[in-house]
Protein: Large conductance mechanosensitive channel
Organism: Bizionia echini
Amino acid sequence: MTGNVIDLAVAVILAGAVSLVVKGFVTYIMMPIIGHFSGGLDFSDMKIILDEAVLAADGTVATPENAIMYGEWINAIINLIIVGFVLFMIVKAYNKTKKPVEAAPEAPKGPTDNELLQEIRDLLKK
């Protein structure tokens, strides 16, 4: 049991580290490539503005804009697809390294119930 808890703790810590690596990969490598092929579109800038930002008299933002950031959601979906694919490839490679389970040799078969009853019957006849 203790070994399993330690394995789980290590997996959680590694998942956090891998999450940062994958997020960086998606943000800084994949999204610029996708943006290039989609005509320079940056998904993280896509949003539906519900309320415009209100500026104060001195030019500072008094009330920030309120917007639905659906571009960030698209980034999260792409991130999920990449993480799922990478995990699939890792599990697939791990399963190839495991040696196949060998079937245990079958135990010798003993007499059936009918054979035992026949033997008892024959012994009782004697």
About this structure: Helices lie at 2-37, 70-97, 113-125. The domain at 2-102 is CATH 1.10.1200.120 (Non-ribosomal Peptide Synthetase Peptidyl Carrier Protein; Chain A). The chain has a mean pLDDT of 82. The first strand starts at residue 48 and ends at 51.
